[in-house]
From TrEMBL:
<dbReference type="InterPro" id="IPR020843">
    <property type="entry name" value="ER"/>
</dbReference>
<dbReference type="Pfam" id="PF00107">
    <property type="entry name" value="ADH_zinc_N"/>
</dbReference>
<dbReference type="GO" id="GO:0016491">
    <property type="term" value="F:oxidoreductase activity"/>
</dbReference>
<dbReference type="InterPro" id="IPR011032">
    <property type="entry name" value="GroES-like_sf"/>
</dbReference>
<dbReference type="InterPro" id="IPR013154">
    <property type="entry name" value="ADH-like_N"/>
</dbReference>
<dbReference type="Pfam" id="PF08240">
    <property type="entry name" value="ADH_N"/>
</dbReference>
<dbReference type="InterPro" id="IPR013149">
    <property type="entry name" value="ADH-like_C"/>
</dbReference>
<dbReference type="InterPro" id="IPR052711">
    <property type="entry name" value="Zinc_ADH-like"/>
</dbReference>
<dbReference type="InterPro" id="IPR036291">
    <property type="entry name" value="NAD(P)-bd_dom_sf"/>
</dbReference>
<feature type="domain" description="Enoyl reductase (ER)">
    <location>
        <begin position="9"/>
        <end position="331"/>
    </location>
</feature>
<protein>
    <submittedName>
        <fullName>NADPH:quinone reductase-like Zn-dependent oxidoreductase</fullName>
    </submittedName>
</protein>
Length: 334
């Protein structure tokens, strides 16, 4: 089979090569991948910011396709079904079984830049019928993370979500929050992106380039109550204001560190407003399945910024790393 291999922690170390076709074991499924989708974790792996010692690897955590073959013990899946493998295949439900959740696709296990991959049957989720393969490939990390953020914060009518940025998780969170009946505020430094977010359903938009004290704007737009959910993606540069913008009994859901990992905050408002600081790196297969079901029920579609052919994987990585995207970046697999 054709694969894109990452031979070293450098984007220019992505190259095409051929591997033997994998064969599923008794409880496994062979998936013919049709698309992959990039996350910042993939960039971190390819630039040495997420150190690995097991190069070369088949990279990219998220992908989608259809079942090409099933193991002898598999009874609940059939050849031809469109499916999405989960990023952490052995985390089925409940608490994460171990730090990191166990082996992860594109890191410890073969990833999605390949024509075929073997995965445990219990790691699969049905592709929503209204999604293409490229759209479905964006779901495992981004949609699951956004779903957990909205559910953890208990969003519903009369609640407010503050979403930082317009990346994949942020746009999923906006759409899920709206589906729960919540009001959504979105920040960005781009007026063009903010207008696109408004067309997707954002109730209020804040350009932090022109409103550097954006936490004050959040408080003004919520009549001083603050947000019930803050989707914190920035890290060092945004975290203090995320705390300022959070309301009583709110959740600051921490999913990124674009501006750095170390931060100093005033713990008094955290205590006085009973703010919950919740770290997250995705969720179990059960949450992924719930997110996909919600997307089917509400007709939610991922926002695709661009789709690159497999032989332009390096260009796809660089496009994500540049940070100008709106939504997700996919890679088609012929």
């Amino acid at each position: 089979m054709k694969v894109i291999e990452l031979a070293a922690p450098r984007v220019d170390a992505l190259h095409s090569c051929t591997y033997p076709d994998p064969v599923p074991g008794p409880a496994e499924v062979l998936v013919r991948l049709r698309a992959a989708s990039l996350n910042f974790l993939d960039i971190a792996v390819a630039t040495g910011k997420y150190p690995l010692n097991n190069f070369p690897i088949i990279p990219v955590t998220d992908g989608a396709g259809e079942i090409a073959a099933i193991g002898a013990a598999v009874t609940d899946w059939t050849v031809g079904e469109r499916v999405i493998p989960h990023f952490i295949p052995n985390w089925q439900d409940g608490r994460m079984p171990t730090a990191g959740g166990g082996p992860r696709r594109g890191i410890d296990l073969p990833g999605s830049l390949a024509e075929y991959v073997v995965v445990p049957a219990h790691s699969l989720v049905h592709t929503p019928a209204h999604l293409s393969h490229a759209e479905a490939a964006t779901l495992p990390i981004a949609a699951t993370t956004a779903w957990r953020a909205v559910r953890t914060a208990g969003l519903g009518p009369h609640k407010t979500a503050l979403v930082l940025g317009t990346g994949g998780v942020s746009l999923f969170a906006m759409q899920f929050a709206r589906a729960h009946g919540a009001r959504v505020l979105v920040t960005s430094s781009s007026d063009e992106k903010l207008e696109r977010a408004r067309k997707l359903g954002a109730d209020e938009i804040i350009n932090y380039k022109f409103t550097p004290k954006w936490a004050d704007a959040v408080l003004r737009l919520t009549d001083g109550r603050g947000a019930d959910l803050v989707l914190e993606t920035g890290g060092a540069a945004t975290f203090p204001q995320s705390i300022e913008a959070a309301g009583l009994d709110s959740t600051v859901f921490i999913i990124g560190f674009l501006s750095g990992t170390e931060v100093s905050i005033n713990v008094v408002p955290v205590m006085e407003r009973r703010i919950r600081l919740q770290g997250n790196n995705t969720g179990p297969v059960a949450d992924f399945a719930d997110a996909a079901a919600a997307m089917t029920a509400h007709g939610i579609k991922p926002v695709l910024d661009a789709t690159f052919p497999m032989d332009q994987a390096q260009a796809a990585y660089r496009h994500l790393a540049e940070g100008g995207h709106f939504g997700k970046i996919a890679i088609s697999i012929p």
